[in-house]
């Protein structure tokens, strides 16, 4: 894309698939990254590929290849005003596209993506579905680790942004790529951290809308998933069984999509979860084993629950802290509003207690878990 200079206002895409407003403080041309200061004055180095600059007026060079118009004039996005050669945009711009109303991929994703899953209705939802039929990069060019969890290019999803497989991402069972929760349109409920109990196929592989199916879970899987999710949200290892573990499970029972476990009467859930925690010493540690209260439980190793024949590495360090605030930015006639905060390269929400209508996250945690205010 076009050049970025110190002092430029930009949008930076982070590992949750969302865009955040910031200002460029330094540019490293060798490493192809920029030091960006965000609205809370935090600063992070961001790869150049994940930075999207504003355009002052109609551009006279293509923002992808930096070349001037060829035989035909550039097509300029109605919202951001960036110019494109028809063949440089993904997907290619059709000859019959109306240059007065055409909207680029970046602006479509900026409007459509949100926490809990992208929008499913309206013009931008339809445009997003069309954009998602092709990836803006060659999947075969990515260099993956042996477990196919991370790649050296930090290129994931339909948006080509950074990501972390254990932080609300779905892996396509066909191509193996990971996709942000915020960029998918198939979810009925928001993801928990570390929840991979889904059979998912991306729009590219499905050649149409994504497909998704919930995989069966055991009581051990549920206990592990809840503890992992709470440990990332609250940045603690041990949790009280009645007031935190059981409380979270009961309050979010329908959203957990537990299949055959869903019909378990409320009075039986406690026994089954407690038995799972006490009977699987390879996964869980009880407070009484470390001279703490026996009602406390934690994970032996902070790692997501494994799937069958899973070879995922163990994650021993918690992700960084998410700083909560909201930004609203205006491009043309469209307001892009993303509740949340500026993310570090590894980051999670500190607390998840705001109603779904306010932040689209949908999960409820007792206030004492995170030390926050249950508003």
Automatic annotation (TrEMBL):
One of its GO terms (molecular function) is chromatin binding. Gene3D superfamilies: 2.30.30.140, 3.90.980.20, Zinc/RING finger domain, C3HC4 (zinc finger). GO terms for cellular component: nucleus. Its main location: nucleus. Keywords: Metal-binding, Nucleus, Repeat, Zinc, Zinc-finger. It is found in: Nucleus. Residues 59-110 form the PHD-type domain. Transmembrane segments: none annotated. It holds the Pfam family PHD. InterPro entries: KDM4-like_Tudor, Tudor, Tudor_PHF1, Zinc_finger_PHD-type_CS, Znf_FYVE_PHD, Znf_PHD, Znf_PHD-finger, Znf_RING/FYVE/PHD. GO terms for biological process: negative regulation of gene expression, epigenetic. The keyword Amino-acid biosynthesis does not apply. This is PHD finger protein 1.
